[in-house]
Amino acid sequence: MYKIKEIYYTIQGEGYHAGRPAVFCRFSGCNLWSGREEDRSKAICQFCDTNFWGTDGKNGGKYSAEELAQKIKSLLPENAPKPFIVLTGGEPALQVDEKLIETLHNQGFEIAIETNGTKPLPHGIDWICMSPKANTEIILTKGNEIKIVIPQVGINPADFEDLDYDHKYVQAMESDTWDHNIKHAVQYVLDHSQWKLSVQTHKYLGID
C-alpha cells in the first residue's frame, strides 16, 4: 500500500513543464525532514514549504497500485490527450516502485517524478526532475531536469554542471529575503547562461 498525502488535478507551475495540466500525487514522508514543524530545526532540509505529513489531504489515504491509478484517472477530464502525472512529496522515491510505474503506464499516463536525488528510482519513469539539497549524497546523476533552489548554504550550482541532465534550472528560495533571493537567482542565470530561471508561477497566480 502507498501512503498518499494528497492527489489533485492542477497546472504544473515551475520548471520545464510549467503551464501543463497535470495530476499531482504527493507521497507522504521524506528522508530529509519528518514534516513536523517541531523537527524543522533539526532537519537536513529546513526550507521545505510543502505539507507532506500524514494522509489527511485531498484524496489522501492508503492505496494499492491499481486503486491509486484509478483514483488519479478519475480526476482527469474525459478523453484527456496524453495525461500527465507528477509523483512528488516529500520524497516519492521512498515508495514508488516498478509495480506502480507499470500500473500507471497501463492506464496511459506519462509519468514525471520530483525527487531530491538521494534514493534510487525504479525503471520506466518518463521525466525525472531532481532538486538537490545541501548536506546530502546525490546518487541520481542522470535525468531530464535539475532544479536547484538558491541561495542555499552548502549548494553551488557549479558543482552540478557535469551531471547528465538535459535542462538545468535555478529557482529563488522563498524566505524572508525573497526579494534578494530573486535578484540573486536572476543574476546567476545572467552570469551562467547554461542555467535557466525557474519561476513558481502557481504561487503568483494563486493555483494550488
Structure overview:
Helix 2 links the parallel strand 4 and strand 5. The radius of gyration is 17 Å and the shape is globular. It has a 9-stranded mixed sheet with strand order 3-1-2-4-5-6-7-8-9. It contains 4 helices and 9 strands, in the order βββαβαββββαβα. It has one domain: Aldolase class I (TIM Barrel, Alpha-Beta Barrel), CATH 3.20.20. With 208 residues, the protein is α/β, with parallel strands linked by helices. The model has no long low-confidence stretch (mean pLDDT 93).
Give the tags.
single chain; 208 residues; alpha/beta; TIM Barrel; nine-stranded mixed beta sheet; 4 helices; 9 strands; 18% helix; 26% strand
What's the structural blueprint in terms of helices and strands?
Layout: E1 2-11, E2 21-27, E3 61-63, H1 65-74, E4 84-88, H2 98-106, E5 110-115, E6 127-130, E7 142-150, E8 164-172, H3 178-191, E9 196-197, H4 201-205
Parallel strand pairs: 2-4, 4-5, 5-6, 6-7, 7-8, 8-9
Antiparallel strand pairs: 1-2, 1-3
